[in-house]
Give the backbone structure.
Amino acid sequence: GRISAGVVVGNGSDIGGGASIMGTLSGGGKEVIRVGENCLLGANAGLGISLGNGCTVESGLYVTASSKVKLPDGRVVKAAELSGADDLLFRRNSQTGAIEVIAKKNQVILNAALHSN
């Protein structure tokens, strides 16, 4: 994946092929984007908010600070309000196209062989 200047990625996190993370010099504003530990940014996904520990962004999904995200209780908030929260799964609803977030019940265990390099 592509990581811009001013981005911090935590231990055990995986940035998928073709994924990108906006930095302070590439349109990410003044906020330093941080990806917590043991996160997964899927292939061709993009990120413009910080992720806490144990988060996943599904492949192909781009989440910017102004993205509207539907919560499990039905409320819709800007993704910036979720910046830095732990154990979240960001996904796109295949029927409505809406970005949704749910609390992860099971942690993603990354393949140790992929992270040995």
In short: The first strand starts at residue 2 and ends at 3.
